[in-house]
Amino acid sequence: MSRYSLSRKARRDVFDIWIYIAKDGVDAADRVEAAIYENCKTLAENPRIGKLAIKATKRPLMCWPAVPYTNYLIFYELRPYGVTIVRITRGERNLPKLLGN
What we know:
CATH topology: YaeB-like fold
Radius of gyration: 13 Å
Largest sheet: 5 strands, mixed
CATH superfamily: RelE-like
């Protein structure tokens, strides 16, 4: 069975995203958070559906939009057991800096 894990930074990203959205509504923040975790499950089961994030980093990271909230991107590493979620962020951020090229 494939599974996913979140890095410390990814866990913090989810928390920060929730806090930011919750300022306008807790229900909306809960929906986005649930969608992020659902996408993580999808990535664990289908790890190669993402694309290599060559424009964002030199690291071998894959990228997937958090459907249906595609302004959030999930960056992850392939692992023998599934995936490790490295970061979750909005696409307009400085991705090379955020991902630590």
